[in-house]
Amino acid sequence: MKFLLIVHHNEEAFENMDKGTQRQLLTESIELTHQLHAAGQYVHASPLQPAATSVLVRVREGKSLVTDGPFIETREQIAGYFLINARNLDEAVGIAGRVPGARIGTVEVRPSIEITGLPNSREAYLVKVEG
Amino acid sequence: MKYLCLVYVEEKILHAMPQSERIALSDESMAYCDGLQKQGQLIAASPLHPVDTATTVRVRDGKTTTTDGPFAETKEQLGGYLLIDVGDLNDAVRIASKFPAAQYGSIEVRPLKEHGCA
């Protein structure tokens, strides 16, 4: 199963950290991606540009409405993500606990609905959207 | 440049749709992603299970605490994502605006940090 781990932290607090600590967190995050890769659990991961760089896109009645983001104003902002393979939620939560961002912020773990290349994918999707 | 497009849709709206409309929306979304992939613009994309399947994880003083539920309760919920690789923000916005869910919800487009972090 694929899981999206969304890492949130307070951008201001992060910016105020000394460079050495910032670098250490980044180095640990990169090491984690290598560990996940070696275990066949890595799909993709990246830090994101600050929330102030985000743009919100909506289309209503055929018209595109583009505004500055982010989608929600929160004390902690989305700082990056890990897209992982895990056998189940417990394993995904275990990996989330190893994300350095979990120590200074919050990691939201969301299971993906797998569709690509799966013959029963659409049915699985429909079951879920039907609740 | 790479962008993460976070797709927020009110789950209630999806639940209230007739099944045929949901199938059409799902098909249209998958076809759109196929198209992006063929053009080399898609790295990954997926819908997510409903927000009540979310788990929130924090580690403090070496101890992991988990809580059920998403990071933030919102009227529209994070329902999926597209990770795209395109020329610039204008391309990213154009791609987001053509994704079917943009007609129902909101898509947040965030550039990745590709050249280091700190």
The backbone outline of chain B, from C-alpha atoms, is globular
Largest sheet of chain A: 4 strands, antiparallel
CATH topology description of chain B: Alpha-Beta Plaits
Count the strands of chain B? 6
Percent helix of chain B: 25-40%
Radius of gyration of chain A: 17 Å
Low-confidence stretches of chain A: 118-131
Cα(first) to Cα(last) distance of chain B is 19 Å
| E-strand count of chain A | 6
Give a written overview of the molecule.
The complex is a heterodimer of chains A (131) and B (118). Chain A has 131 residues and is of the alpha+beta class. Chain A has one domain (2-130): Dimeric alpha+beta barrel (Alpha-Beta Plaits), CATH 3.30.70. Chain A is globular and about 45 Å long. The longest helix of chain A has 20 residues, at 19-38. Chain A has helices at 11-16, 19-38, 89-96, 101-104, 121-130; strands at 2-9, 42-47, 55-60, 63-68, 77-85, 106-111. Chain A has five helices and six strands; from the N terminus they run E-H-H-E-E-E-E-H-H-E-H. Mean pLDDT of chain A is 90; it is low at 118-131. Chain B has 118 residues and is an alpha+beta fold. Chain B has a single domain, classed as Alpha-Beta Plaits. Chain B is built from three helices and six strands, in the order βααββββαβ. Chain B has helices spanning 11-16, 19-38, 89-98; strands spanning 2-9, 42-47, 55-60, 63-68, 77-85, 106-111. In chain B, the strands form two sheets. Chain B has a four-stranded antiparallel sheet. Chain B has a two-stranded antiparallel ribbon with strand order 3-4. In chain B, a hairpin with a 2-residue loop joins strand 3 and strand 4. The longest helix of chain B has 20 residues, at 19-38. Chain B is globular, with a radius of gyration of 16 Å. Chains A and B meet through strand 1, helix 2, strand 2, strand 3 and strand 5 of A and strand 1, helix 2, strand 2, strand 3 and strand 5 of B.
